[in-house]
Amino acid sequence: MPELDTIRGLAILMVLLYHGLFWKTNLAQFHGSEKFFLATMSFGRFGVNLFFVLSGFLITGILLNSRGRSKYFRHFYIRRILRIVPAYLVILAVLAAIRYAPPAVLFMNLFYLSNLNPLFGIPLGYPVLWSLAVEEHFYAFWPAVVRYLRVKSLMICCVAVIVLSPLFRLANYLFLTAQHTRVRYVFNDYTWNSLDGLACGALLSLILHECKIQRNTLRIFSLLLTGLAILILFAGLPFGIFTRQTPVGVALQVMPIHLTCTGLLGLFLLLGTGPHRAIVRSQILRFLGGISYGLYLIHLLIFELCDRAIPHFWKDAAVTSSFQLLILRLLAAGGVSIGIAFLSRKYFEEKFLRLKDRLSG
User: Fold this and answer.
1) What is the pLDDT of residue 182?
2) What pLDDT, in 10s, does the model give residues 172-225?
3) Which end of the chain is more exposed for a tag (fewer CB within 10 A), N or C?
């Protein structure tokens, strides 16, 4: 399904643009078209939400296809470990070697608990690892749910998660404001507040696997999801849905994103199996999709190292105050990150991927 690699490539490109051009950038220093362009890069953070939807879709499909296996859990977990853990341990070793974060942060990261750091008064550390923690927690319980629940119950479970996640986010917000505590939106990263994207992808997978819907029905369903997302956005405008400073924004801001990502996934699947498949099989995006995991792990560290290096070449240069420097930083750090991710995939990660069939039984 090469169109799914295209979606991965699109997601990681969004994240790269977000961290390269918007994250930690003071927009007040820019004007006109430059400011507008950099502001639009803020939407790149939703690349993580696209990853969540895609992951929920793929993992649920894998589990549904293997429910009859005698070594169901062994098959799934060994393959996941071989895909995820080696490169993850390498990035943790690098962070430890350069003393990027305190030992407590690295300890939490080692057990995929970084998204829960604020609960224990521990700094977040290397920010991008929070989403991997959410996915690992999903992998921990979802295989058992898929194994033992009937399909109808699984669908109800997905809908319940989609409905409850915004309510949990809202409850966190109201609790903090009632305590007169400064609201820090890291609580959005807590697993119970971040499962709706995974549930959207899982629900789409269940529908496609079990309902045997026709292509035209999937097309209409995908467009309806996008339409519903637009409707929610417009309905939420008076209540501050675009900001996380209001209850509606905290609870519902990502819901239209998840619905749009799910609809986009459905349309990509349709195009990828039709006569116009070339539209969703971009070679560049497929390449980025193939190295997206390693690229996600390494890119933010390379950006930060680049920030430290630039002042040595341009004295008194503040990277985030010059549009030209931001673009140069994106090209340089992004290019280095892509190169490292490519080498990692080809010469390191592939060695473990080739063990999947032999070790998973």
Assistant:
1) 66
2) 888 888 876 666 667 788 999 999 999 999 999 999 998 888 899 999 999 999
3) C
For residues 199 and 258, give the distance between their C-alpha atoms in angstroms, rounded to a whole number: 9
> For the chain, what is the domain count?
1
Spell out the SS3 assignment of 46-109: HHHHHHHHHHHHHHHHHHHHCCCCCCHHHHHHHHHHHHHHHHHHHHHHHHHHCCCCCHHHHHHH
Q: Which residue stretches of 273-291 are H helix? A: 283-290
**Which structural domain, as residue segments, surrounds residue 213?**
2-360
H/E segment holding residue 214: none
Which of 44, 38, 232 shows the shortest CA–CA distance to 128? 44
Q: Residues near 276 by Cβ (< 8 Å), separated by ≥ 6?
A: none
Q: 242 vs 42, 48, 239, 347, CA distance in Å?
A: 12, 17, 9, 43
Distance CA 254, CA 299 (A): 24
Exposed (0-12), middle (13-18) or buried (19+): which is 103, by Cβ within 10 Å?
A: exposed
